[in-house]
Design a protein that fits this description.
single chain; 72 residues; alpha+beta; two-stranded antiparallel sheet; globular
Length: 72
């Protein structure tokens, strides 16, 4: 069970499902708190950006410090 959340008007929905030991209400609350000015929640958006930078060769293989993100 999960949710389809349209985080902004006229965009594709985000599909949210709880993880192990989490209920659907908590997963929705966390997602809503992680939304910024973009469609995707900030942790997902940053992870996607980081992987694309690695994939295109902008970042080299190995360990990288991605800085501190404060979401809450």
């Amino acid at each position: 069970m999960g949710f389809a959340l349209r985080s902004k008007n006229n965009v594709k929905p985000i599909f949210i499902s709880p993880g192990n030991g989490m209920n659907t209400e908590d997963s929705m609350a966390i997602t809503l708190r992680c939304l910024g000015k973009y469609r995707l929640p900030e942790p997902t958006r940053h992870a996607h950006d980081f992987v694309n930078r690695f994939r295109t060769g902008e970042l080299q293989e190995g360990c990288h410090d991605i800085g501190q993100m404060r979401l809450f």
